[in-house]
Amino acid sequence: MNPKRNIAIFIRSLETGGAEKYSLRLAKALTETHHVHLIVVGKRIQTIDPNYLSFIQQEGFSVTQLSGNLFQKFLACRRILIQEEIEITFSHLPSDTLFSFLAGLWSGVRYQFGGIQNSRFPFLKRAILKLIHNYFLEASISNSQAGKDYLAQYGFKADTICVIPNCIDIRSPQIVRSPSSKVQILTVARFVDQKDYETALQAISLVRKFLPEDILLQYHIVGYGILETQIRAWVHAYDLEEMVRITVRPPNLNQQFQEADIYLCTSIFEGLSNSLMEAMHFSLPIVSTDVGDNALLIREEENGFVLQTHQPEEIADKLLSLICNYEQRIEYGKSSYTHLEETYSYESFQHTFLQLVGELS
Asked: What is the pLDDT of residues 274-287, one digit of tens each?
């Protein structure tokens, strides 16, 4: 039997986001057999997503929110790493990887793992990650094959990039939605350039032109971020106020997925999308751009459609196909759920990380 290890997981904040969700699932996966301490580096814990707070309380994680200036955070972190006798660290965002690496180096942590949660980085961030990854880290964990392939092109050591996809802890059964004259398309994503909301709204505008009169369509955008004002301006510019609903930080995200009929993703780059996986968990058919590992989640014409970026006409065409065909939506939604259950289970995620930790001497 492998010994219990003392492990720290670093994360910038506990606001809604893919890296945050990945970190919490990792904490749960490792806590069953190891001592795990979650260290929040950035924003104060009062900004925590209520769903994450409930998850933390339910699982009983040990969580520390660092405070003060950067030097004070380093001092506090070093104290924790030494007192808790931390021998392994994980981090999943570039800033957290840099912080945890420096704090761990200062504290004598033996094994350090960085993280890759996207398939594109600006030059400076990529250069810093490359230096740390190639010369100091035990390995970097990528949540997507696309992220590994992208960084390998820029000189990252590919043999020390481990691909461990996100997972879903499937607890609810498949959903079979009843036929209705109202069809709701859903996008759940941060309000940032990467998600390309203008293309999504252009597609909805095109759909409206060919929408049968007996169908009531709503496009529901759920998220938060710096582009909220711009997105609302696009909604107005395309005259979509009656068709588009924007919800910022809803208290119950599951409800938004349950009420939807189709999931839309127009991102211009991704790693492995948590939102797509959530949509599949809620038995939704998918229309998505071919970025990151989306093509691994979506089996063409089985549970959705995979399209090139910045193509509102093609997106509109596939959306109309699903809007006008209830049976196709249900068939694709069932396929989404089955594919997720077979390929991206929590049990597989946990086994892979426990094996990784268990192989450390």
From this structure: 899 999 999 999 99
Distance between CA 20 and CA 47 in Å, rounded?
A: 13
Name which of 162, 78, 193, 174 is nearest 352 in CA terms: 162
**Residue 58: its pLDDT value, please?**
87
Residue with tokens 């998220």: 223
Number of residues in the chain: 361
pTM of this prediction exceeds 0.85: no
Q: How far apart are CA 199 and CA 280, in angstroms?
A: 22
Triad 126, 27, 54: Cα angle to 5°: 115
Q: Return the HEC string of the chain.
A: CCCCCEEEEEECCCCCCHHHHHHHHHHHHHHCCCEEEEEECCCCHHHCCHHHHHHHHHHCCEEEECCCCHHHHHHHHHHHHHHCCCCEEEECCHHHHHHHHHHHHHHCCCEEEEEECCCCCCHHHHHHHHHHHHHCCCEEEECCHHHHHHHHCCCCCHHHEEECCCCECCCCCCCCCCCCCEEEEEEECCCCHHHCHHHHHHHHHHHHHHCCCCCEEEEEEEECCCCHHHHHHHHHHCCCCCCEEEEECCCCHHHHHHHCCEEEECCCCCCCCHHHHHHHHCCCCEEEECCCCHHHHCCECCCEEEECCCCHHHHHHHHHHHHCCHHHHHHHHHHHHHHHHHHCEHHHHHHHHHHHHHCCC
Separation CA 54–CA 295 (nearest Å): 32
CA distance 305 to 294: 10
- Residues in the chain predicted with pLDDT less than 70, given as ranges, are 1-2, 43-48
Q: Residue 79 burial (CB < 10 Å; 0-12/13-18/19+)? A: exposed
